[in-house]
Amino acid sequence: MMAAMKPNEPRVLIVDDMPAVRQELSTLLLLVGGLQIVGEAADGREAVALAQARRPDVVLMDLEMPGVNGYEATRQIKTHCPACRVIALTVHGDAATRHKASDAGADEFVVKGAPINILLQAVTNERSY
Predict the structure, then answer these.
(1) Least crowded by CB within 10 Å, which of 8, 47, 66, 110?
(2) Where along the chain do its domains lie?
(3) Helix (H, G, I), strand (E, B), or coil: what is residue 56?
(4) Residue 56 — φ and ψ, nearest 5°?
(5) In DSSP terms, which residues pair with 108 in a beta bridge?
(6) Cα gap 46→23, rounded to integer Å
(7) Predicted TM-score of the model (pTM)
(8) Phi, psi angle pair for 40, to nearest 5°
């Protein structure tokens, strides 16, 4: 589901291997408003291709996916689109996972299931990593 394009709204790419998670994130972000969903990807390879083609401002990146995982996709996106902010999304909130995500180039880290305001703050860059 993609929103109509409006100026000055962050352009967001959603990446998760689970369709229900992608749909939930897309629906929540569209309901809040002020954001554009420019695409959804089911794996890291698709995420890299869409990031290069659509140049989102923000990528919501699941870290644990089969094939090209979120860590590697983050590295590739940050190489090809360095201005794009990548927000790592995962069920694992431990320090090792945070460190690994940061090493891959993630700009923010949000644990799945966190309150929507935490995710929105990360997307709109209202908090630091």
Answers:
(1) 8
(2) 73-91+105-113
(3) coil
(4) -70, 160
(5) 87
(6) 17
(7) 0.89
(8) -135, 140
